[in-house]
Amino acid sequence: MERGLLICFLSFFCCMCHAQAGHVLTADSKRKAGVEYGEHIYTRFADSKLFPGTIRDVDVYVPAQYDGRSPACVCVFQDGLFYRADTVVSNLIESKEIPVMILVAASPGWVVGDFDSDSPRSNRTYEYDTPSPRFGQFLLEELLPFVESLKTETGKSIILSQSRNDRMITGCSSGAACAFNVAWNTGSFSRVYSSCGSFTGLRGSYANATLVQKYEPKPIRFYFQSGTHDMWTSFGDWWSANQEMVRAMDFAGYDFSYKFIENAEHCDDNVTLIFPDAMRFLWKGYPQNEPAPRRKTRNFMLNQILVEDRNFELVYTDIEANSLLVSDHSGNVLLASSDATILLKGNTLRSVSDKKIIAVGKAHEMLVYIPRKGFEVTDSCGRIKKSIKSKMHVSHAVPLRDGGYYVVGKQHEGDHFSTIWYLSAGYELLEKENNLKSICTLALSGNNNWLYAFGYDTRRGYSYKVDRNDKSLLYGQEFFYIHLPDQCDGAEVTSAVCDDYGRTYLATASGIQVCDYNGRSEAILPLPGNAKPVSIAWGEEAMNVLYILCDNGNIYKRELNTKGTSLNAPMPIIRVGAG
């Protein structure tokens, strides 16, 4: 069966890289006199925990210029080693156009069946076309460490650089989609050569061009190749999809290049012919010229809210991740956990209460939640003004400008549906909406016209009109459309805040998503290390700094060109078109 697997893999490889009449290789792709070429290490990897049961063939090319002592750059190939890459890379290393690099290539994984061993499960499209972090995690945590356990025939150890600036990834067809997805999702690769990329409906990679235009640009350099006779199937049009990707790159300001070829077919010899020039472009100016966007994005919202040279700043670590960030509307940010609330101030944490403050309301009134007992409403000094008994399980609350709060939670622990209550300025608790699936956080528009409700297991968010008189919630609609990563069944929204210009900021599995007044996710800000934000709040005197608590226990802050909603400021005038 192992021989059958290898033959199947090699058959695919040969189909991709067959020689075609009329295609003449340049000298870069041919062996040259005076250039010493390296060696291949052929092996098999069958010990994956991320893709259990899979077998894959591995080919590691170690150039002769590698000394076995210093960490080398690395280029990862999908579907095996092609483009005549071993020859090209050795030639370009010799001419000092690229750094010394080790090439790591592997077949997709296969799982052998017990009843018919000649009918294996192929993992290729699952591993390559799925735009999730899993395959990147496999490379970084399993395959590359396995490669580093190998030695050359002459006893050289394989030492691969851990720097993003020293890593490249490439592939053809689904392998190209994989290369993009790995670089995009891991932050560990800075150079991508995509030939005939499958940015189509095979799985989820058809959405990549849209995400490129919405995300804050990443430090990745790209080279794309396709042709007018590229593949066209029920899954989509590869030629159009690659044009869309190039347009998205241009829109977002990336440092990229492309070669679209008249009459070129899917993964024909053109992908090999242009490989030397692709390598020159991707590694230009190494190591000083690290990949970075070459100009500002055309994304209007990103350009509105981002402040030049103001990135995420780590301010606290080792924080309990299920805590809640709360703004006091005067620039201070509170951190509330199950049994205490502290003030985030400079580099210090100062105790405010031994109870959980879940919202700060009008005139600095504080809403305290006591699990399984109810609420306390206190003044700014912590003196209790009112106690309200309730056994509800509360997840979040938001204050209104004219007093009172909306509170979301569940009637009983374990309920699948959520309820929204209104706690009036006279401290009466009134149910306003129920049977909402998994809603866990609320936000009020700056003008208090609309209450927004978001949940963990959906990609949509609700919008309700707030009745000015009795605070009823009217005309609810699934108004927001939120992006979710492929590995998630919901957007995993856990926190939401609004600014004075009609935008809504969401803590989601994709990072901070910023929606316009019409409910569309228009900008996405990924956190350092792709950490997942779990709670957000506005802070600082100008209310223009977003504080973000992440699931890894880190708190970041970022200055933005906006103003968060505040009960202490005049009601904003929001005027937005119909979209």
Automatic annotation (TrEMBL):
Cleavable signal peptide: 1-19
Superkingdom of origin: Bacteria
Cited InterPro entries: 6-blade_b-propeller_TolB-like, AB_hydrolase_fold, Esterase-like, Mycobacterial_A85_antigen, SGL
Pfam families linked to this entry: Esterase, SGL
Keyword entries, A-Z: Signal
SMP-30/Gluconolactonase/LRE-like region domain span: 312-548
Keyword Signal found: yes
PANTHER family (alphabetical): ENTEROCHELIN ESTERASE-RELATED, IRON(III) ENTEROBACTIN ESTERASE
Protein name stated in the entry: SMP-30/Gluconolactonase/LRE-like region domain-containing protein
Record organism: Bacteroides intestinalis
